[in-house]
Amino acid sequence: xxxxxxxxxxxxxxxxxxxxxxxxxxxxxxxxxxxxxxxxxxxxxxxxxxxxxxxxxxxxxxxxxxxxxxxxxxxxxxxxxxxxxxxxxxxxxxxxxxxxxxxxxxxxxxxxxxxxxxxxxxxxxxxxxxxxxxxxxxxxxxxxxxxxxxxxxxxxxxxxxxxxxxxxxxxxxxxxxxxxxxxxxxxxxxxxxxxxxxxxxxxxxxxxxxxxxxxxxxxxxxxxxxxxxxxxxxxxxxxxxxxxxxxxxxxxxxxxxxxxxxxxxxxxxxxxxxxxxxxxxxxxxxxxxxxxxxxxxxxxxxxxxxxxxxxxxxxxxxxxxxxxxxxxxxxxxxxxxxxxxxxxxxxxxxxxxxxxxxxxxxxxxxxxxxxxxxxxxxxxxxxxxxxxxxxxxxxxxxxxxxxxxxxxxxxxxxxxxxxxxxxxx
Length: 425
Hints:
Blueprint: E1 2-7, E2 16-19, E3 23-25, E4 46-48, H1 54-57, E5 71-74, H2 76-93, H3 103-112, E6 113-115, E7 122-124, E8 127-133, E9 141-146, E10 151-154, E11 177-180, H4 192-208, E12 213-216, H5 222-232, E13 238-240, H6 243-250, H7 260-269, E14 271-272, H8 279-284, E15 289-292, H9 302-309, E16 316-319, H10 328-335, E17 337-340, E18 343-346, E19 350-353, H11 362-369, E20 377-379, H12 385-394, E21 399-400, E22 407-409, H13 419-424
Parallel strand pairs: 3-4, 4-5, 5-6, 10-11, 11-20, 12-15, 12-16, 13-14, 13-15, 16-19, 20-21
Antiparallel strand pairs: 1-2, 1-22, 2-3, 7-8, 8-9, 9-10, 17-18
Helix pairs in contact: 2-3, 5-7
């Protein structure tokens, strides 16, 4: 089996793994400025998408811009999420060099889409492929690829701990090679119950003191997780942004969420914001909780709310996800000020961070990989891939971190790191 790393090697973003020059696993983008896409656009027979986040699915429509029409395989929620994000990319960047696909390409994508449930083998570009729950977001999958000679397990993004929205990954299919993500390979997450309790106590205290709480969230996964937390702890809240649509959509796929009834209750309890007739300005003046996109303060309704609540120290901004360097969210954490609609504004409101990550941490990665101690491990989708591969080798694993653009034949094993790579690791 030949594997080429067109993206995602020693980086987080634009995941794209080419198998045997015919099957593509993911085709995402890196949300930098400017946005970055995989190294090249291969002509393939089929694509399998692990889950519906931009860094794994954001560039898939561009594969249909020419005469090639590869089938695109995914779970039903992943299809819906990927197409929703593609439409949003077109809305924000259509007809610019930032967007390599058109509305026509997106329409073609809906025509070649093939949906699959978990544990149902199917053929793609001459390979037998099976999807297993990855515990990251609804519909997210580990991808097992068998070319008749080698079985490759591509983890995609995964989590081994239960979230309110989805259950942790438990499947460990037999494989000859494992290609694992490593986003939080050097991080230990605080226990989810502890994070949730700290978040709830902070929000309740601010509301009790008469303040307004802005909860910036990602539309996919994080919005629904926070709504479930609010429902479980009887916290009244408003919800704004794309997360409203995603919440409604996920209710159509109850088999892909952990507790469909809880999600239904959370949605019914939250008050949807339309944004009409100055509604956001009125809500920002209330003693309430507002769950809104975008999670890194880089757009969406949150840029309307924060300027209105920023000056009062009783108010609070509770960041619920990682803040990438260069984003307004990171700037706010580091400096106490950030740019909103082109204006750099100081923020006197309290700013807090809570790690509701949907990725496995160091312990979670190891608990997953412990099932593959005798299996060669390839490490990607992380900023310290070589370091993690080195740690795995020290612990008796056969592990290697590919470089961007590298081509590897794994039928007889995986490469041995050079002396320089061993020293760097």
